C-alpha cells in the first residue's frame, strides 16, 4: 500500500466520522427545537387562557385551531 492510498483511506475514514458526528448533532438540535416549540406553545396556551386571545391570534395564527380545540375540550370537561 503506498502513501497516497493510506492518506485517501484516512481522509475517507475521517469524513465518515465527521458525517456521523454531524448527523448526531443535527438530531440533538432537532430534539432541542422540538422541546423549545413545545414550551413556546405551552406559554402561548397559558397566555391565551388568561385572556390574551387577540395577541395569540395575531402572533400565532397557525396555533389558533389547536388552542380553540383545547379550549372547547376543557369547557366540555368542566360542563360549561
Secondary-structure topology with pairs:
Blueprint: H1 3-49, H2 53-59, H3 64-77
- Distance between the amino and carboxyl termini: 80 Å
- Unreliably modeled segments: none
Instruction: Write the H/E string, N to C.
Output: HHH
Number of domains: 1
Q: How would you describe the shape? A: rod-shaped
Our Rg estimate from Cα atoms comes to: 24 Å
Biggest β-sheet, characterized? none
Secondary structure category: mainly alpha
Average residue-wise pLDDT: 87
How many strands in all? Answer: 0
Strand content bin:
under 5%
Description:
By secondary structure, this protein is mostly helical. It has one domain. Helix content is 85%, strand content 0%. The chain is built from 3 helices and no strands. It has helices at residues 3-49, 53-59, 64-77. The radius of gyration is 24 Å and the shape is rod-shaped. The mean pLDDT is 87.
Task: Give structural attributes.
80 residues; mainly alpha; 3 helices; 85% helix
In short:
It contains 3 helices and no strands. With 80 residues, it is mainly α.
Amino acid at each position: 500500500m503506498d502513501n497516497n492510498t493510506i492518506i485517501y483511506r484516512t481522509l475517507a475514514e475521517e469524513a465518515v466520522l465527521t458525517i456521523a458526528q454531524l448527523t448526531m448533532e443535527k438530531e440533538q438540535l432537532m430534539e432541542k427545537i422540538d422541546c423549545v416549540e413545545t414550551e413556546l406553545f405551552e406559554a402561548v396556551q397559558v397566555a391565551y387562557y388568561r385572556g390574551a386571545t387577540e395577541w395569540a391570534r395575531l402572533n400565532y395564527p397557525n396555533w389558533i385551531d389547536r388552542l380553540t380545540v383545547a379550549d372547547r375540550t376543557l369547557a366540555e370537561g368542566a360542563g360549561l
